[in-house]
Design a protein that fits this description.
heterodimer; A: about 190 residues; mainly alpha; Arc Repressor Mutant, subunit A; 9 helices; disordered C terminus; B: about 280 residues; alpha+beta; six-stranded antiparallel beta sheet; 8 helices; 6 strands; about 40% helix
């Protein structure tokens, strides 16, 4: 692949890939590492993809798999089944969201289980249809729909709760078994110091 | 109501509309169209959809504000410069194939020019691994090659060419490309509780191969179908015996005028769910 083509690909997708990675890892440095790792995979293998129109889906799929691979190497996040018994969706005014900053919305999203975070983030990035989300996450379309529906419900509850308390959603505290990419993280920290 | 699906209720419509983007890109899909029709005829649902889309737009805008590290792009580009593309097996096989073709051509030229009585050429009983020859191929090699192809598809992110559970749509899609009738419904019915969710085309030694994407409960697998004429051996492969091929569970069998290979979507897929 020509350098120019690669650079165009990076320019077109690195920001939303990073945002998706951030929603998965909940850590800036890990999200940056995961994004970089995804493009390195492309540099190594992506040229095999004949249909270049599928590059975007390939990148998001690869990033998600890299994330899951990292999870397998460490301890899995506990999977928390959300209670979907609540029939009534809480009503959240768009103005409430408009009054928040992006970081606060992200913190609310980060409070959800990864089962819901991943499809919601892909949905809100506005890059993918639900069929593409199903392909990236490797789950049936019906599951994407139900996760989006429940995830939106949970996200609203988080935002409303934070508004009721008069605070922004609590800062996410990563669990003890959060994924880390020690080698690159340490390099990054060293560079910052 | 005479046959067919029952009309969509509000809950179903909400579930579908909840997953749609407000830019209307999915509106051509029948289920989305039906859900939108429900919203048009139901003011309560229409009001819900309008609120939902406004809120979605607000959340999209906020999440796009998440800052990206300023140095990330240059780090990615610098990192990629020191990576060299891996020499992958497909390339190696292509080169081997080309080399085999050249060798074969040389032997044929030699035999044409050789004096009578120089002896007959040996018969190439097995197709070369490159797929240059399609003369003879066993069911086992079909199984191994398809599992290898699937592993390759997975390595770049597998997606079906057509993602639908509509049997007729898949049948039309494949029949047009294979130029033979593929009885998709009948094939799927013979695979336990399997349900179709898409299809793709593949090639094997110059033959078009139909690939049906299936799930059964939580398990997913892909069925490669080729016409029996592509296989000229009579090798006895125990029906539906599951082997590990290229890291994936795979089973091969014959039925009627077709040969089949079922490959698990993941190394740990339980193929018995499809039998």
């Amino acid at each position: 692949m020509k350098d120019r083509e690669f650079e165009d690909l990076v320019s077109a997708h690195y920001e939303n890939l990073y945002r998706f990675a951030f929603s998965l890892c909940r850590s800036e440095s890990e999200a940056a590492d995961l994004t970089q790792q995804t493009f390195l995979r492309w540099a190594q293998r992506g040229f095999q993809l004949r249909d270049r129109s599928k590059a975007k889906t390939w990148l998001f799929t690869t990033l998600y798999r890299e994330f899951l691979g990292g999870q397998r190497r460490t301890t899995r996040f506990p999977h928390i089944e959300m209670d979907d018994a609540g029939a009534e969706l809480p009503y959240l005014e768009p103005e409430t969201v408009n009054a928040m900053d992006g970081q606060s919305v992200m913190e609310a999203l980060n409070g959800l289980d990864e089962t819901y975070r991943a499809p919601l983030m892909l949905f809100y990035l506005k890059e993918h249809s639900y069929t593409e989300i199903a392909s990236i996450l490797d789950i049936p379309i019906g599951t994407v729909m139900s996760r989006l529906s429940r995830g939106k419900d949970q996200l609203r509850k988080k935002i409303l709760d934070s508004q009721t308390r008069g605070t922004s959603p609590s800062k996410f505290q990563p669990p003890e078994n959060v994924i880390t990419f020690p080698a690159t993280n340490e390099r990054r920290k060293a560079a910052n110091e | 109501m005479k046959g067919g699906k029952p009309p969509m209720n509000n809950q179903e419509a909400k579930l579908i509309l909840c997953a749609c983007r407000s830019d209307g890109q999915e509106q051509h899909e029948p289920s989305v169209r039906e859900a939108l029709d429900c919203a048009e005829s139901d003011p309560v649902l229409a009001a819900w959809l309008a609120r939902e889309q406004t809120l979605d737009a607000a959340l999209c805008a906020k999440l796009s504000e998440i800052p990206v590290p300023a140095s990330l792009k240059s780090e990615i580009l610098a990192g990629a410069r020191v990576i060299k593309p891996t020499f992958v097996w497909t390339d190696a096989r292509t080169l081997l194939g080309a080399a085999a073709a050249v060798a074969l051509a040389a032997v044929m030229v030699w035999s044409k020019d050789a004096p009578a009585g120089a002896g007959s050429l040996p018969v190439f009983a097995q197709a070369s691994p490159s797929g240059v020859s399609s003369a003879v191929a066993s069911l086992a090699s079909f199984r191994n090659d398809m599992a290898g192809s699937f592993a390759q598809m997975q390595s770049v992110g597998f997606t079906p060419d057509l993602r639908t559970s509509n049997v007729d749509a898949v049948e039309d899609f494949l029949t047009q490309r294979v130029s033979r009738t593929i009885e998709v419904g009948e094939i799927v019915d013979n695979l336990g509780d399997a349900r179709l969710f898409g299809c793709r085309m593949a090639e094997w030694r110059g033959q078009k191969v139909s690939m049906l994407c299936l799930n059964s409960g939580t398990e997913e697998a892909h069925l490669f179908v080729v016409h029996q004429s592509a296989l000229t051996d009579v090798e006895d492969v125990k029906p539906k015996m599951i082997e590990n091929c290229s890291g994936y569970p795979a089973a091969a069998w014959r039925d009627g005028d077709k040969a089949y290979v079922l490959v698990g979507h993941r190394p740990e897929t339980d193929l018995t769910k499809f039998f």
